[in-house]
Amino acid sequence: MNSPASSAPSPAPSGRLLDGIRTPADVKALHADQLARLAEEIRSEIITVTAQNGGHVGPNLGVVELTIALHRVFATPEDQIVFDVSHQGYVHKLLSGRNGPAFRQIRRTGGLSGFLYRSESPHDAFGAGHAGTALSAALGMATARDLRGTHEHVVAVCGDGAFTCGVTMEALNNVVSTTKRLIVILNDNEWSIAKNVGAMARYLNRLSTNPTYNKIHHDLEKFFTSLPHGPEMHRMWMKWKRETKDFIVESSPFEKYGLRYLGPINGHNIEELVKNLEFAKHSDGPILLHVLTQKGRGLKAAMSSPEKFHGLGAFDPTTGESKNPAHGTPPNYQDVLGAALVRFAKADPHVVGITAAMPSGTGLSQLATECPKQFFDVGIAEEHAVLFAAGLATKGIKPVVAIYSTFIQRSVDQIIHDVCLQNLPVTFCLDRAGLSPNDGPTHHGLFDLALLRSVPNAVVMQPQHEDELVDMLHTSLQHGAPAFIRYPRGAGAGVAIKSQPALLPVGQAEVLRPGTDISIWALGPMVAEAIQLADRLAAEEGLSVGVVNARFVKPLDRALLLRQAAVVPLLVTMEDHVLSGGFGSAVLETLQAAGRTTPVERIGWPDQFVEHGSSVEILRNSYGLSLDDILRRVRTRWQNLPAEAPTATV
Ligand SMILES: Cc1ncc(C[n+]2csc(CCOP(=O)(O)OP(=O)(O)O)c2C)c(N)n1
């Protein structure tokens, strides 16, 4: 193992080695026999902080030794370590100058992000929150290095789940033709969020558990390195192995892509990791290290429930029980969706549900249990999920694709080119539309309306509460063309689900209250806010304020809108989405096309990436979107109306 640099960091007053680490150089300066203690301290810090703040517990506890070894061998920020998803970056943060109060506030307002950002630290080579990006970005960095003639190392750290992503495989296909020096760590813990799926997962499992395969490879590797021309002979052996088509000894798929394969390596043995990383550092060709880790290592509850502890809110570290459980709160939208889908699937065997590696997050695990033949988990493969659904739909199957709003961004081409252009009856359930406060900009679902509203044939809607979600799912399944339903994270409004869902007239809004001064057109949960706003405008300003549950963004209820625009002096739109290209924009476009000049006050998120924060409420306050702020804006607009624009006449 590495010998330590001349001066080990002086012990911190707390007595913890971790508190003496201010830069990755301090990790290198530790004695090798101090590293196990450092790992223990890091685990304890992560458990303490995530137990309060929530976060990605399992992924981080699994990469403690791996991250220590990476910082032991490589020198960031000169060397680049690109973490896939970057949800497992807490250990890296602790070792690169971010241990302390900001870490203790991770995922909260003013604290560190739960993901990596180039703007947060020079040690964060690449930001991420979506899966499958590390290999491609790292290949770009390695190629830039080659072009610029510099010598730094580039390391991509990818989970086994990342290898279910198309983009990872696209990058893998390009590695050998693009650079000679790239180190890929395959952090294999056998889990995506749920158990990893697909042929690659099965293959990796075979690779890590097949002693014969590994023994042959290890023995040959050892034999070659003992020879005077070892590396050259090893290259010839690899070539011969490829050319004989694995007749004698099977190659790993990575070798077929031209990467040297090293592994499996015990991901909790720092000495073994360091030795292999040092070897990789001096490799003269692209190399993949297959590292076996255990998700949640060191926390009993996390090891026994890897799916729950992938990412969760505050919990009791001793029992693993979630704090602030949802007792007494209305069911989550995702659970309502899951239950409704089971009901529709049982009634009609043509109804199937598709998830891209998020069975529990989307509520589809209910379908997996109750109607397993009508359930498909395709891995972290959103593009494939949509195309697969399109294929199913051509044959009379009624696919329901449940994907978070933020992750559907991956599938825009399949939505346009494959589903909507062919007008195929696929239902999309876009969960987490709106803010995902603790996760931040990589996870907020604020762009889906703008992306979808421009696509011909798409029906785009949002329910005001969970019962309307069921109506919308029912309506979509009957609609016979592409339909998108967006809904937010978390609890519904507490509205009882009807025994028989209603078939909604597509493109028709619902007038909840008439009003002659102002009409508020609201979307989704903003309808409840609109009602409060209307009450306050009536009570405080004596105004007659109407409220419309817009339901459909596309087709928008043009007839109702134009009727109202002809009689009310001010329209207000409310949406949980960016203003650019969103629901308010649709209202403006419709009015403009009809030659109406009725003023519209649009309430929504500004044209910027919204950071993470402790709660939706805190973020709304900081963007001037609290109910009081909205009231002030509408009141000011109302008071300035006569000067600003004449009211419309019928
Ligand atoms: C495009 C995309 N889809 C879904 C997710 C949600 N997600 C976050 S982490 C994760 C699993 C990643 O598995 P793996 O790469 O094996 O890493 P591990 O968590 O096991 O360390 C998923 C599905 C995501 N971040 N990005």
Largest sheet: 7 strands, mixed
CATH class of the largest domain: Alpha Beta
Sheet-strand content, in percent, reads 5-15%
CATH architecture of the largest domain: 3-Layer(aba) Sandwich
Principal-axes geometry comes out as globular
Spell out the key features of this protein:
650 residues; alpha/beta; Rossmann fold; 3 domains; 7-stranded mixed sheet; 5-stranded parallel sheet; 17 strands; disordered N terminus; binds thiamine diphosphate
Describe what you observe in this structure.
The structure is a single chain. The protein is of the alpha/beta class and about 650 residues long. Thiamine diphosphate binds near residues 84, 130, 161 and 356.
SSE order and pairing:
Elements: H1 24-29, H2 35-53, H3 57-62, H4 64-73, E1 80-83, H5 90-95, H6 101-104, H7 134-148, E2 154-159, H8 166-178, E3 183-188, H9 199-209, H10 211-226, H11 230-243, H12 253-256, E4 260-266, H13 270-281, E5 287-292, H14 300-304, H15 333-347, E6 351-355, H16 365-370, E7 375-377, H17 382-394, E8 398-404, H18 405-408, H19 412-420, E9 427-431, H20 448-453, E10 459-461, H21 466-479, E11 483-486, E12 510-513, E13 518-522, H22 526-541, E14 545-549, E15 552-554, H23 558-565, E16 570-578, H24 583-593, E17 600-605, H25 616-622, H26 627-639, H27 641-644
